[in-house]
């Protein structure tokens, strides 16, 4: 896949293509930025471009080397991601073992570590030695949402390539061209930082179901319907949606923000655009301070979830607060 097929990230693409053009590719890179903003796709394209036999600063997508990367069977490309919650020292040792063999081609070997900020301390220290003294010519790409949690010594030995959230309008245009309905597209775009994250979310069977449930609960809570709490918990955890409560609270946050957008006449920013009629009739039932406090409830519930609070209790407390 050529660099031009990656949506956004013009700075990152320019830095990498310049390095290819000038033959100044570094031994290690740190792709740092929010999840779903295209780091993995860019890393694979960069690896393709390094191996590509036709183009100097891009991936042609057609030569044998490019096709091997595309099909996930290039012998000189190694992908790694956390096993469970972290990347273990054994995984780094295995990487070192693979790299002790000579490259099959004339190019350096490439390894991509996804979730590099999830390395254990031992794994990070082991990688540090490997970064300093690889046994064969190598290009490492570390992908991280939170680069500050990496060892400072690893940060200093890698070239940082920053990734930023892709502009929502650009993502909406791409999704519209792919035939995604606008209400679903707006919701996905508001919950992710890049087109890859959007597509991933839209492919989940539970995503549309969760959106419908949030709308149902949001409307019931405005109607002071105390049955909402009892039925919500049951429905969520019976259908398996309970695993995605983080997204539920994020959607609620967007819903309350939409009420504020309506009050401040920023209709173009409304996410649940298909609910404009309902929003227009109910936005004035609460004042700005109340909608803001509801947004804070949603954010607080997400924090509790991440601190391993009981999921069902989190949801029930949240819905009860909305009804008071």
Could you describe the largest sheet, including whether it forms a barrel?
Answer: 5 strands, parallel
Query: How are the strands of the biggest sheet laid out side by side?
Result: 2-3-4-1-5
Low-pLDDT stretches are none
Topology, number of strands? 5
The DSSP helix count reads 15
The averaged pLDDT comes out at 88
Helix content: 40-55%
- Beta-strand percent range: 5-15%
The CATH H-level homologous superfamily of the largest domain: P-loop containing nucleotide triphosphate hydrolases
Q: What is the level 1 CATH name of the largest domain? A: Alpha Beta
Radius of gyration from the alpha-carbon trace, in angstroms:
23 Å
What is the end-to-end distance?
A: 53 Å
Note the run of SSEs as H and E: HEHHEHEHEHEHHHHHHHHH
Protein name: DNA polymerase III subunit delta
InterPro entries: DNA_pol_HolB, DNA_Rep/Repair_Clamp_Loader, P-loop_NTPase
GO molecular function: 3'-5' exonuclease activity; DNA-directed DNA polymerase activity
Organism: Paenibacillus albidus
What structural keywords apply?
single chain; 324 residues; Zinc Finger, Delta Prime, domain 3; 5-stranded parallel β-sheet; 15 helices
